[in-house]
Amino acid sequence: MTDPVLEIRGLRVDYGLGDAAVHAVRDVDLTLHRGEVLGLAGESGSGKSTLAYGLTRLLPPPGVVSGGQVIYHRDDGPPVDVLALSPAQLRAFRWAETSIVFQGAMNSLNPVHRISTQLLDVIKAHEPRSTAAARRQRARELLRLVGISADRLDGYPHQLSGGMRQRVMIAMALALEPQVVIMDEPTTALDVVMQRQILGQLAELRERLGFAVLFITHDLSLLVEFSDRIAIMYGGRIVEEAPAAQLYRQALHPYTDGLLHSFPALRGPRRELTGIPGSPPDLRAMPDGCAFHPRCPKAFDRCDKELPPLGPPGDGDPGRSVACWLHPAAVPLTR
């Protein structure tokens, strides 16, 4: 997991233009390595989904990418900036190189078309020279890959359970064997048992096929077990990034610590659930300095005056980064 497959550099996403623009994603830097699961967590409104739609150029109006780069490293060619691709290049890039499982994915299937039609359309659009028999065989294999019987291929979405529809969307995302799969809160509407089954299935597929995953959720407890690394987002910025086990054992940012104490531990000694007081910031009127300082129990004078840079903490592991004046960055990350 040392080679990068996707590098996000200084990404900025706004809603609206000019002085009235709302800055939803602010100078985000993230690197996804080949074969790894990178978790992205934060409260609702922190900018997670906007980041996903911005880097894939799927932002609905009035969203606009106002700056930055999204560098994709191909297996067999030079890196490309996704934000600079032409419409034709972008059409070829999506699904074949990078795919996305949308938030509320189990309701993303067209209710008036059979599962086969929706799976076959994806394959046919990118492999127009393939035969109808080959495409159908591939669709049957995809269903079996995600644990669904191939005889469900000609069924309609309403004939499948929520978990099965979710798995169909994952199968569709894997249809062209992309190197990167972006999952935007794909298990939110499912019960905990089905969440566990789908995450287990996804982990098995990742091991078998070798793709990388950017897994976006507000549920940090899911990421602690499923991810290799976790990035925490607040107010449109990344405030902490670390290996999953290290972040769980020793969170440096008070916001991360608050998230970790918002769900009960399933193993080990009991701990008090404290939660996080207050509400996420209004992106139209962000506070000065650190955006979290109005809610932070450890804030001091510097926090409401200066924005802390993201970088490896001066007194900690260089393999992690944090944006907090309690742990000033020894060398701020630069683009």
Short description, anyone?
The protein is an alpha/beta fold. It is built from 9 helices and 11 strands. The longest helix is centred in the middle third of the chain and has 18 residues.
Radius of gyration: 21 Å
Q: What is the tally of beta strands?
A: 11
- Strand order, largest beta sheet: 6-7-8-3-9-10-11
Order of helices and strands: EEEHEEHEHHHEHEHEEHHE
**First CA to last CA: what distance?**
21 Å
Q: State which percent range the strand residues make up.
A: 15-25%
- Mind telling me the CATH class of one domain? Alpha Beta
The whole-number mean of residue pLDDT values reads 89
Which residue ranges are poorly predicted, with pLDDT under 50 across at least 5 consecutive positions?
none
CATH fold label of one domain: Rossmann fold
Protein name: ABC transporter ATP-binding protein
Keywords: ATP-binding, Nucleotide-binding, Transport
GO molecular function: ATP binding
Provide keyphrases for this structure:
single chain, 335 residues, alpha/beta, Rossmann fold, 11 strands, 27% helix, globular
Describe the structure.
This protein has 335 residues and is of the alpha/beta class. The protein has a domain at 4-97 and 206-322: 3-Layer(aba) Sandwich (Rossmann fold), CATH 3.40.50.300. Helix content is 27%, strand content 21%. Strands 6-7-8-3-9-10-11 form a 7-stranded mixed sheet, sandwiched between helices. β9 and β10 (237-243) form a beta hairpin.
